[in-house]
Design brief:
Layout: E1 2-8, E2 11-14, E3 19-21, H1 24-29, E4 37-39, H2 40-61, H3 66-76
Antiparallel strand pairs: 1-2, 1-4, 2-3
């Protein structure tokens, strides 16, 4: 399944208007320039990369217990309207 995307500046906008903020590293790693669609594997890899980046940024500011960090990341990254029936295999 292909996900339709729009890229404006450093934002990746999904069909359902959810926004993922991108870094220059993400643009090059996932070859996002001029893309209009992402396959599921690339999408989940991109999300996983973004979650790790958020976790590193949060941990740079202060220490968290594992459960506290997991809950903060879940609050931050919610994709309620997306089809998440496939298990992307993320582990915390």
């Amino acid at each position: 399944m292909q996900l339709k995307i729009t890229i404006k500046g450093n934002k990746l906008i999904l069909d359902n208007n959810k926004i993922i903020y991108l870094t220059k590293e993400m643009f090059s790693k996932f070859d996002l320039k001029n893309k209009t669609e992402l396959d599921n594997e690339t999408f989940y890899s991109l999300i996983y990369f973004r979650i790790k980046l958020s976790a590193y940024n949060m941990l740079a500011k202060r220490d968290y217990f594992k459960k506290e960090l997991k809950n903060k990341l879940i609050e931050k990254v919610t994709f309620d309207e997306m089809d998440t029936t496939e298990d992307p295999g993320f582990t915390f």
